[in-house]
Amino acid sequence: MEVSGSDFLVDLLRxxxxxxxxxxxxxxxxxxACTVLVDNLPVNSCLVLAIQVDGKEILTIEGLGEEVxxxxxxxxxxxxxxxxxxxxxxxxxxxxxxxxxxxxxxDNEIKRAISxxxxxxxxxxxxxxxxxxxxxxxxxx
Length: 141
Description:
single chain; mainly alpha; Ubiquitin-like (UB roll); DNA polymerase, domain 1; three-stranded antiparallel sheet; 7% strand; globular
């Protein structure tokens, strides 16, 4: 697939590939709604040119838990960490990157990791509880 040098990853994913789970929020990298994993690291896809990820592994929410819900998705549901759902895909992918690199994060490490993802509904308490419930769970990797 050809892309222009000015195509942003979020637009490629949503408009050309139909992966609409990645949300387009602020367009300035402030809200985290467009977070995807590039080579297992969270990035704001609204700030990344599509050409910059050529040859890299991209994971969107659609690729997580394709057959059954991923443990992080289940934890978010079980702990009421999903309300309107707009921030959820980016929050879940950010959580996956955190738990993959640190299966037992402290409360402060969790808060720091999700600090780039804005949620206007939950107040973050349920999100933090969901992530704490997964600590040390090898199934999240």
